Amino acid sequence: MGNNSLHVLKGINFDVKQGELVSIMGSSGSGKSTLLNILGMLDEADEGSYTLDNVPIKNLNEKIAANYRNKFLGFIFQSFNLINYKSALDNVALPLYYQGVPRKERVERAMHYLDKVGLAPWSHHLPSELSGGQKQRVAIARALASDPKVLLADEPTGALDTKTSYEVMELIQGINDDGKTILVVTHEHDIAQMTKRIVNLKDGVIIDDSMVEQVRASQYV
Amino acid sequence: MFDIERWQEIFETLSKNKLRTFLTGLSVASGIFILVILLGFSSGIQNGVTSQFEQDATNSISVYTGVTTKEYKGLNPGRRIQLKNEDFNAVVNKYDDNLEYKSAFYTIWGGLVNYQNESGNYRIEGVMPDNQFIENADISQGRFINHSDIIEGKKVAVIGNKVSQDLFKGEHPIGKNLSLYGINFKVIGVFFDPGGERDESKVMMPITTAQKAFNGGNDIRNMSYTVKMSDNFDEAVKLSEQISSGIESDIKETHIIAPDDISAVRVNNTLEEARKIYSLVDTIKAVFWFVGIGTIIAGVVGVGNIMLIIVKERTKEIGIRKALGAEPMSIVGMILQESVFVTMFSGLFGLVAGLALLEFVGPLIESDFIKYPQVDFNTALTTVFVLVFAGAIAGFIPAYRAAKIKPIVALRDE
């Protein structure tokens, strides 16, 4: 955007193994969202390399990036980003549409994931008829629908109250327990403590990267 | 394009956004509807004006003969060329498609006409029924010469207003008998002529009667034709010249006249009056084209505007779809397909509604200057496609730009 380029990340080097649940922490401006966007191929790094599932991610054109996003990644946003005129079920089914899955199977699979996040009874509701926590769970179901390698969550609890946040984290932990790799960007310490590893960013560099004892969200719910 | 899944997605989007779909459709449909009505009435006014002035627009061709001035094929110059009934019929047969009115004339330049004690010297013309229209004679009383008068060679006469005033002195002339050189003719009509008193000092009778009464045999003095109105003045000039020169060379051939003898046969055509009417019709056409093009431009701008707003409104949705793995072109394609579908559907709806209105209301309009308002279906259809195409272009540019935006920018919370 614009002509002013700003170096946000100044040398980040880290690996995430399959099945990890990593939180990326940092104050605002530390570069955590930029890092996540690069990992999510929503943005591109001007230098350095990024390998996802042994596939080097570089020189992406829009089409290839779209395919990778579709196959490898699931996004969970702070503001949910559901399509407001589509029902919960249709929102969840959308990534499958872009995978070319036939309609009938799409609906079945979307229903399966909605059920998994406990929202099967709300499948035909519009996002505007759902609470914030429910919306985020629909978004999680949508992120899961395409069976991605990695889930990227950008402040998934940022717009939710504490109780709902813990419910969402419980869900995320459950998904991780099933073996999914998940990266969570957050600035809330209690949320970070619910992951297995915390990467701390400051001014574009990693100042701390350590494993933590996972706090199960279920004990708060 | 024929991907069922894509269509399902589109119909779902359209049906979930009923208001947006409805408003887009309404603006396109009403645009086309207004355009169709406008075009219809423009053609109606054109038809009306044309039919009002058609008579004056006719260009007439008159054929006269004279004396040959050149020797040709062993024939001496100085021969008088006499037109016959056959010459008239030959022209009629050959150019029937292009001729509207036709009349041969057998004229006595000055004839003494009596009614009781009044008398006067008038030009006497044997004519055909069509002459009423060739000369724009306006019948004020009675009727003009008709076909059966010609066939039966009836002794009837139509007199000019001047003759009526001179001889009848305010008496009702219809049914009275005039005497020409001792032969009685029954007056069947009185005419006015825009040409004035000179043209109203005439007595017209069936040409067959004139030929019989004045020893004319088969002879005719001259003949006049009017050519049907063409689409524009240039065509009219071309057609008129073509027919004139055709008639001239035909007559020269039958009467064995040198092709370059200009005084033996003279074919005149008048186009001056016609020029004015053609230019009036052209002006009307031009005005409506101008208005029509203006309407199309307004429609294009309107549709383009809607497309722009729609795409703007959907920027975030585009970002979401891209984050979920939609290829940029699939998004552009989807938006285009959607907008083309809506504009096409509603455009055709507006077209049909407009045509239906013209069809049902058109015949009810009672005005001399609006006749048969109707629209050329192809023109209307072309207009619909122009609008659809313009809408597609107008939608494509912002859609393409939106699809190019990085999803992260599109998703940014404002």
Strand order of the largest sheet of chain A: 4-5-6-1-7-8
Low-confidence stretches of chain B: none
Overall pLDDT level of chain A: 88
Number of domains of chain A: 1
Radius of gyration of chain B: 34 Å
Structure annotation, total helices of chain A:
7
The CATH superfamily of chain A is known as: P-loop containing nucleotide triphosphate hydrolases
Strand order of the largest sheet of chain B: 3-4-9-6-8-7
Which two chains have the most extensive interface, and how many residues on each? A-B, 32 and 29 residues
Fold-level CATH name of chain A: Rossmann fold
Give the low-pLDDT segments of chain A. Answer: none
Q: How would you spell out the order of helices and strands of chain A?
A: EHEEHEHHHEHEHEE
Strand content of chain B: 15-25%
Question: Helix proportion of residues of chain B, in percent?
Answer: 55-70%
> In terms of structural class, how would the helical and strand content of chain B be classed?
alpha+beta
CATH class membership of chain A: Alpha Beta
Structural class designation of chain A: alpha/beta
Question: What does this protein structure show overall?
Answer:
With 221 residues, chain A is of the alpha/beta class. Chain A has a single domain, classed as P-loop containing nucleotide triphosphate hydrolases (Rossmann fold, 3-Layer(aba) Sandwich). Chain A has helices at 32-39, 62-72, 88-98, 103-116, 132-145, 162-177, 189-193, and strands at 21-25, 51-52, 55-56, 73-76, 150-154, 181-185, 197-202, 205-211. In chain A, the strands form 2 sheets. A 6-stranded mixed β-sheet of chain A has the order 4-5-6-1-7-8, sandwiched between helices. Chain A has a two-stranded antiparallel ribbon with strand order 2-3. In chain A, α3 (88-98) crosses α4 (103-116), α4 (103-116) crosses α5 (132-145) and α5 packs parallel to α6. Chain A is globular. The termini of chain A are far apart. The model of chain A has no long low-confidence stretch (mean pLDDT 88). Chain B is α+β, with helices and mostly antiparallel strands and 414 residues long. Chain B folds into 2 domains: 4-52 and 276-412, no CATH class; 103-224, no CATH class. Chain B contains 14 helices and 12 strands. In chain B, the strands form 2 sheets. Chain B has a 6-stranded mixed β-barrel. A two-stranded antiparallel sheet of chain B has the order 2-10. In chain B, a hairpin with a 2-residue loop joins β7 and β8. The mean pLDDT of chain B is 84. Classes of the chains: A alpha/beta (221), B alpha+beta (414). Chain A binds chain B through residues 1, 37, 40, 42-43, 62-63, 66-67, 69-71, 75, 77-79, 81-83, 85-86, 90, 94-95, 97-100, 102-103, 142, 146, and chain B through 5, 8-9, 12-13, 16-17, 316-317, 319-330, 403-404, 406-409, 411, 413.
